[in-house]
Structure formats: C-alpha cells, structure tokens
C-alpha cells in the first residue's frame, strides 16, 4: 500500500511538471557555495523559478548519499535530502519539487514494481 501511495504521489508530481531529472548530482568538494550555484542554475529552468526559495521546497532523491553531496546540501534550507530507497509518499507530497538524478530512478522503479 505504501508503494502504491508513493507511485500515485510521484505520478501527480510528474503530471504537474514538478519533477526535475538530472544526469547526475555530484560535488567535487563539499561546499555549500557550489550547491547554491547549482540550485540557482536549476531555478532558471522554466517552471522551476522558486526551486531555491525560502522554505524547504525541493526534495533531492539520491541513489546513495555520498558524503560530499550530503555536506554540500545540508546547509541549504530549501533542500531536503533523502535516499530513493527510503522515500515515502509524505516526503514527496510535503515538497513542491522533486529533483532526481537518473541513478535514483532505477531504484524507484525497482521499489515500486515489487
């Protein structure tokens, strides 16, 4: 039942064009300054202008949490970081946008198909 709820919420986010798929999301050094630049660049994409807003607006789903990525994103108030294998429907519905590297899509598909 939880998998079905997650699938429904993700489907609604896709329909509302609130999902952003990236080739990857890695940081060479764990600097918040780099993460801010990345999210400001992503906010220039049409429809994602408030991606880097004041409140937690974005849920970043990673295949696995790399320490550099976690440190770079942890100080951003508008980003919530979660591993794709642990995400719940409540996590997704509580955020306006979902940011997915391609590697996490495979994990979500595997999780939702079982």
Explain the overall architecture.
Helix content is 44%, strand content 17%. With 114 residues, it is an alpha/beta fold. It has one domain: 3-Layer(aba) Sandwich (Ribosomal Protein L4, Chain: A), CATH 3.40.1370.10. It has a four-stranded parallel beta sheet. Helix 3 (67-74) links the parallel strand 2 and strand 3 (79-83). The protein is globular and about 40 Å long. The termini are close together.
Quick structural overview:
The protein is an alpha/beta fold. The chain contains 5 helices and 4 strands; from the N terminus they run αβαβαβαβα. The longest helix is centred in the N-terminal third of the chain and has 14 residues, at 2-15.
Q: What's the order of the H and E elements?
A: HEHEHEHEH
- Would you state the CATH class? Alpha Beta
* Whole-number mean pLDDT: 89
The multimeric state of the shown protein is single chain
Count of DSSP strands: 4
Question: What structural category arises from helix and sheet content?
Answer: alpha/beta
- The CATH architecture name reads 3-Layer(aba) Sandwich
Low-confidence stretches: none
Radius of gyration: 13 Å
CATH-assigned fold name: Ribosomal Protein L4, Chain: A
């Amino acid at each position: 039942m939880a998998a079905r709820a997650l699938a429904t919420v993700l489907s609604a986010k896709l329909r509302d064009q609130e999902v952003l798929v990236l080739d990857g999301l890695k940081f060479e050094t764990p600097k918040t300054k780099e993460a801010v630049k990345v999210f400001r660049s992503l906010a220039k994409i049409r429809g994602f202008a408030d991606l880097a807003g004041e409140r937690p607006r974005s849920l970043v789903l990673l295949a696995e949490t790399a320490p550099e990525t976690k440190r770079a994103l942890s100080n951003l108030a508008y980003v919530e970081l979660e591993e794709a294998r642990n995400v719940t429907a409540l996590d997704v519905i509580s955020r306006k946008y979902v940011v997915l590297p391609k590697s996490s899509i495979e994990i979500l598909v595997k999780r939702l198909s079982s």
